[in-house]
Amino acid sequence: MTTARPFEIRVPDEVLTDLHDRLRRARLQPDSPRKPSSGMSGDYLRRLVDAWLAFDWRERETWLNGHPQFLADVGDTTLHFVHRRAERADAPVLLVMHGWPHTFALQLALVDALPDVHVVAPSLPGFAFSTPYADGEMSETRLADTMHRLMTEVLGYERYLTYGEDVTANVSDLIAATYPGVAGILATHSHFPNQEQREQTTDASERAFFDTLAAFHGDHGAYGHVQGTRPDTLATALNDSPAGLLAWLAEKLVEWSDTPWRSDGDGGPGGDGDSGGDRGPATVERRISRERILTEATIYWVTQSIRSSFRPYYEGADQPGVIPPTRVPAVVAIQRHESTYPESLARAHYLDLRSFERLDEGGHFTAAEVPEVVAGLVRRLVAEAW
């Protein structure tokens, strides 16, 4: 069995000094004429840059280190992960995986909401403090194998529950469908058929959902196309400019969360009004606070991991392959960004579906946005599967 070794985050002072120097010299521009309604606004980015300069990373670092962290060698990657044990040795066990552009840090709200569960929250290879795969290949099959080995070979768990978001939604499905010892799965990003399977469906609601999805990605999917086709060129710019990195990350953290921003001056990335954190709860940062946005940006900056975080897009791990049906108990709760997802798709994949619902709150980063709601879903799965 591979041994896990304790780890604490300790960013060198000179790295933070260099970050602050670059932020002070940032060459920010006003919005261009006829600016698209979506995307980062100059006003909002200026506010974020100023906030990053005043951000107390050492205080945040101490908070992060309050969650037990470890490193372990799994194949040709060194995985970083949080392993927060419950008081009861026989408590249920949950694997919690992030996607892009978030890191393990954004999943800690769910970890904190589950004191009665052993929770493992890894950094994907090439994200945050985990090293990339040596050969760069980052398929969903490889990620599933790595995560299962972490849970079994490193941590010695014979049974566990699984949860993933974004690119790891596919990984979670694959783990639950493939590996013995997986007791159940929670999905807020429910299973998507691959493109060929989508084209073959004759169900009207399914076809309408896929058409809506395709239209949305046509309007908003440029980031994924660039990350999947020119990852190193983009990463070179973002790795050299903290303001650029912040704009790239914050745009998605805000737009993909369940927020009330609009493009007519409500303060979102594409708006011109005052923005999150300054106008009470009805702001663009009501789900993911400015502190958490800056935490994500700082982790990407100090680890220089933006380039390796693009690997799932370049290697195709963000595209669903053919994943066998899942036969373990499943709880599915559809987050609001996929609110019209047809129940028929879930029932076709999760053959032991114990419950299906549509959430009233929570967007793409569901575990971070509504951790207590997701914790309740975990406990429901525990009651059904553990």
Detailed description of the structure:
- The chain has 386 residues and is α/β, with parallel strands linked by helices.
- It has one domain (5-385): Rossmann fold.
- Helices cover 44% and strands 15% of the residues.
- The chain has helices at residues 13-24, 42-54, 57-65, 108-112, 140-154, 167-178, 195-200, 204-220, 222-229, 231-240, 242-255, 290-303, 306-309, 311-315, 343-349, 366-369, 371-385; strands at 5-7, 69-74, 77-84, 93-97, 118-122, 160-164, 182-187, 326-334, 350-358.
- Strands 1-2-3-5-4-6-7-8-9 form a 9-stranded mixed sheet, with helices on both faces.
- The longest helix has 17 residues, at 204-220.
- The model is unreliable at 261-282 (pLDDT under 50).
Text of the CATH class: Alpha Beta
Spatial strand order of the main sheet: 1-2-3-5-4-6-7-8-9
Sketch the topology as an H/E string, one letter per element.
Answer: EHHHEEEHEHEHEHHHHHHHHEHEHH
Uncertain stretches: 261-282
Q: Going by CATH, what is the homologous superfamily? A: Alpha/Beta hydrolase fold, catalytic domain
Counted beta strands: 9
Give the tally of structural domains.
Answer: 1
- Overall, the morphology is globular
Structural class: alpha/beta
- CATH A-level architecture: 3-Layer(aba) Sandwich
Instruction: Give helix % range.
Output: 40-55%
Radius of gyration: 20 Å
The third-level CATH topology is Rossmann fold
What would the keywords be for this entry?
single chain, 386 residues, alpha/beta, Rossmann fold, 9-stranded mixed beta sheet, 9 strands, 44% helix, globular
